[in-house]
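User: Hi! I'm working on a homework problem where we have to compare a predicted structure to a textbook description. Could you give me the structure for the chain below?
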Amino acid sequence: MKRLLAAVVVALAASGCRHTPAPIRLNGRTLVVENQTKREWRNVTVTVNSYYRGGAASVAAGGELDAGLSTFATGFGQKFDPNRESVHTVEVRATDASGQPVTLEWSDRKQEAK
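Assistant: Happy to help. Predicted structure tokens:
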């Protein structure tokens, strides 16, 4: 019984110390944008390096938008080439279900400072 109680206490302590991942993450050649709110996002636009754009019509509350970097393109159709370029900035713009603007930003400079 003591072992079971100890296991429950350890499990509860571990769950309380979880690290929340950043809402914008690079996973190899995939960009992940996580909606960590309780409201759906609509008209989601993602801009990489102030030049390449992509997005989705919506991202559910608690959901993720996973996009290959090569799917991002300029207004002239030039694709992001992860073999030749690095991601330096990511901007996410959307509107939540209540009509409020959503803005997220990521920069490799912020990551280096940590």
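For your comparison, note the following. The beta strands are 24-27, 30-34, 41-48, 52-59, 64-68, 89-96, 101-107. DSSP finds two helices and seven strands in the chain. Good luck with the assignment!
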